[in-house]
Amino acid sequence: MQETYFMQTPIGRLKIVSEAGAIIALDHADEAAVVEGEGGPGEASGVIRQCVRELEEYFSGSRREFEVPISLDHEGTAFQRKVWHRLREIPYGETLSYKALAADCGGPNHSRAVANANGRNPISIIVPCHRVIASDGTLGGYTGGVGKKRRLLELEGLDIRPK
Question: Which residues are catalytic?
Fold first, then answer.
């Protein structure tokens, strides 16, 4: 059974979805979305409570790695899942270019496919697609908006200036 929880954060509302003891989705939620499960994380399942706690720690600057169980293998193509698993290897406070990620995941000509997979990442922040930027240092896109991507990178200590 899936469980959905909405959490307010410094970058806006996040929607957290769990199933079978793992987080299966974490995404930016429309501020006008119907608020389900916002009675407090104490009323949510253990994995949702753990996710909320770890996100609070991340946003306060005291967490650099997530331990909450996640599941990336129930959706996406094999290539997308490969990209998502590689994203988890990008260290806190560091970035990787789309071009370098493409080289890691299939070849330098796969930059567009990597960007597409990045945009379909089902578990934002924990699977840090925000750490992927263009080779020239510009931010590129982000499903939550470039402003949120910049704020996440700044939170991690990176000084990202518009170019």
Answer: 129
